[in-house]
Amino acid sequence: MAGEPQPDCLFCKIVSGEIPATIVRETDTTVAFRDINPQAPTHVLVIPRLHHPDAAALGAAEPQVLADVLCEAGNVAADEKIDQSGYRVVFNTGAGAGQTVFHAHAHVLGGRGLEWPPG
Questions:
Q1: d(Cα 85, Cα 27) in Å, to the nearest integer?
Q2: Is 105 a catalytic residue?
Q3: Active-site pick, 51, 52, 103, 105
């Protein structure tokens, strides 16, 4: 059920502490941790503590929590000292867009040039 921890969800297990991660920030509603397969010198994932399969579902059910995820993405960028040089926040939604863990999450990427269009 949306909003409830899912027993087979990697990110729910990180939120619960069952699976370790390199946590860089935590709030009442979010957890931010380093990606295990970084695509840039800074690559941090910001996730809601609540389980929703993607950003669209999170926004529809819990718009304030989605706003918290975005706010934390900015805080991560500041902590990582990429806020002035530039960074990208990416939500992949659906397998066709590259989403592999179906728990809403934002990628915070920076520390190198990021070309446009991505892909």
A1: 25
A2: yes
A3: 105
